[in-house]
């Protein structure tokens, strides 16, 4: 199993809310103690938090299913249920969260300590003590807890490193990062040995910085060829680019200048990388004839305004000067870089005066009601308790659903679906336009919902 994982699908479920309790206070010599059922506890949230000490998504590759704790049920004597515990998932800095179905970017997590509630726990149901009113002094029911959010998200890591090593496959990037840091990447003499970025920590005097060995790029990488999009996204957040050029390649049609221009074309086509400072490293100087070729092409690179270093990752020739040059650039970039602020979450309140529901005619005498309030009330209702069903009918009537059904052409006995067509609640509607005209029958009966 790989040690570096930069993209995972995470299956997340928040905790369900605890059910409310229907209880009547019982005490000697107090036959009418009144309702004392407590509320259910809130379900736990699933929270993503940026942790600078986390560098990979490997943990979620191994355990992709995460669930928060459910809230506890309310109890008698006005005792509320305990809230479910939150689950906090640590992710690396620079993690992008996407909806797995639509691909929509939900949030880009940047900055240590940034938190995002990816799945919210369900609210607990109210106990009968909270439901008591002047008209309903001793409710014989309680509300159910609501289920927590459940969704699948894609976590995508864009490496946050100071320096990115870019170049053709087998240019010696992995050998170079192994030579200048304690990283131990897989090294072999065939293309695409590196399929995931290798991160190494490099010290240049008092400056400590990170270097990312980006998998090899080929012409067409900006269009996705050779997993180009997978590799190029790791370059986006690096402050500096180092071209590692193979001075010993024997492939026909390739030379140091054309290799540099080919990689530059792909970086430019990918976009948003034009402002990154560049440096050129002519690698494999220990190979015969490579040093002479390096001496020939160095003036051409310098004419482009590039700083050039001739090195050998195998013999460590020229590495000290190269490391300290990178350290100087990184120190200067950090001094001029603004302080990275945590991602700001924008909360947009709903517009006042919204009805909170919509009525749609599906077919002859069949109607669908959708909206946050009515669908939520359906989830809270215990349909095995007729009194709870009557309470739901009162709420729907006060919301104005009955009037909208009449406007849409519904008649007595119409089939009304609250929620989605696949799993919504279906009932036969009995109109009672005048609330005062509703005759209350025996406790636990109501003719408005069939």
TrEMBL record:
Family: Belongs to the TRAFAC class OBG-HflX-like GTPase superfamily. OBG GTPase family.
Positions annotated to bind GTP: 167-174, 192-196, 213-216, 283-286, 312-314
Species per Swiss-Prot/TrEMBL record: Nonomuraea soli
UniProt keywords, alphabetically: Cytoplasm, GTP-binding, Hydrolase, Magnesium, Metal-binding, Nucleotide-binding
Domain OCT: from-to ranges: 349-431
Subcellular location, record wording: Cytoplasm
PANTHER family: DEVELOPMENTALLY REGULATED GTP-BINDING PROTEIN-RELATED, MITOCHONDRIAL RIBOSOME-ASSOCIATED GTPASE 2
Functional description taken from the UniProt entry: An essential GTPase which binds GTP, GDP and possibly (p)ppGpp with moderate affinity, with high nucleotide exchange rates and a fairly low GTP hydrolysis rate. Plays a role in control of the cell cycle, stress response, ribosome biogenesis and in those bacteria that undergo differentiation, in morphogenesis control.
Superkingdom, taxonomy of origin: Bacteria
GO molecular function: GTP binding; GTPase activity; magnesium ion binding
Gene3D superfamilies per UniProt: GTP-binding protein OBG, C-terminal domain, GTP1/OBG domain, P-loop containing nucleotide triphosphate hydrolases
Gene Ontology CC terms, in alphabetical order: cytoplasm
Gene Ontology terms: biological process: ribosome biogenesis
Listed EC numbers: 3.6.5.-
Binding-site list for Mg(2+): 174, 194
Domain OBG-type G: 161-331
InterPro entries attached to this UniProt entry: G_OBG (IPR031167), GTP-bd (IPR006073), GTP-bd_Obg/CgtA (IPR014100), GTP-bd_prot_GTP1/OBG_C_sf (IPR036346), GTP1-OBG_CS (IPR006074), GTP1_OBG_dom (IPR006169), GTP1_OBG_dom_sf (IPR036726), OBG_GTPase (IPR045086)
HAMAP family xrefs: GTPase_Obg
Domain Obg: 2-160
Primary subcellular site in the record, as a coarse category: cytoplasm
Cofactor(s) annotated in UniProt: Mg(2+)
Name the record gives this protein: GTPase Obg
Quaternary state and interactors: Monomer.
One Pfam entry name: DUF1967
